[in-house]
Amino acid sequence: MKHRKIKVLLIIEQCNPEWASVPLVGYCFYEYISQLVDTALVTHERNRSALEKAHPGRDITYIRESDFIKKYYAIAEKLSKLKGRIIWPLYHTLTYPVYGEFNRQVYKKVKGSILQGEYDMVHSITPMMPRYPVMTIKACKNTPFILGPVNGGVPFPNGFRKVARQEFSDFNFLRLVGRFIIPGYRETYTKADYILAGSTYTLNLIKDLFDITSEKIELFYENGIGNAFLKKDELISEIETKYSAKINLLFVGRLVPYKGADMLIEAISLLEPTIKNKIILTIVGDGSERDGLEKKVQNLNLGEIVDFTGWVDQQDTLKYYRVSDVFCFPSIREFGGAVVLEAMANGLPCIVVNNGGIGEYVTDETGFRINPVSREFVIKELKVCIEQLVSNQVLRHNMSLKAIERAKEFSWSSKANAVVRIYHKLLENRA
Q: Which domains does the chain have, with CATH numbers?
């Protein structure tokens, strides 16, 4: 295998360079892995336009959606909304047949070529939530099958039951229903040759649910950093000179209850005047809570300190990272949290809540992690952390440099190399 490029079949239902979140992550895995091995991609028809624009002529198979599923999805999406907000646990349950059709069609398309030995490896990357089976594993009798990174299932902290109810956590029992009724769900995990888990919580969940041994699973964060977000070495010197009379705090994310922007605003209001006069907080993002957050800012007389930008395209957020000094992201339940990596790549010390993936990205050298004891506790600790970083330029400087070094570990090229090393290890074990 070392004398030729191995051939890998990548199954990435969500794979789109023009979209954000999981579709972009799926695409980045595909793009960077393809630079190291020969790949064939199977993805959804909805990604065709963007992928053909980026990569004309590549070995890509597109799975079309039936007219019935298109109509069904429209109905399911409508039923999953309450007052304009999506009830995500219900949405994922009702829309499962959409993925189910894709899953069956992929199996029909590729089972023959897999059985004939056309691929050295089969790797299913998206969807990333740990609740979807992959029927193609049935054809991987003599071909190693790798799954993931899968991530999800992180519960709301006990001290945030009100926020949990606002995020429709009462519907979370539907996850348990899926585990028992979805065909092939258990088989996918028990028969996979190797599983990548996107957070420590999900890793332990999978090990417990399916009695997976440590030899078959490893922690592998799903998010990565592109070159545009990694500060070039010549820009590091800017960290020493960019501090101005104002310290720029930054929040980037959807304005929904669990992201915690309301706690950040309240923490700002509690700062001593000498600290408060030194800062500006920029909130990048939009969502159902924006009107309420803007009213809170006015009620707390923070209009001169807090600025809302509204929704900003992902690439355009770079300029906000580059002119900021501290990243504040008190999300109480985050699976991936790519914005934290983006902030670190631009030399921002990060203040996060220690629940889910973001608490694993940030170290004591790169920022602060607040335990999600209660809303009041998080607000108090946010205030303390902000005061330390605003008052101590040396601390900001040191954390900035360490943040950049930490972010480099998450570059997409590094992640792709790590994945390919796993491929070779699996193939060597089979030899």
A: 7-224+411-430 (3.40.50.2000), 233-408 (3.40.50.2000)
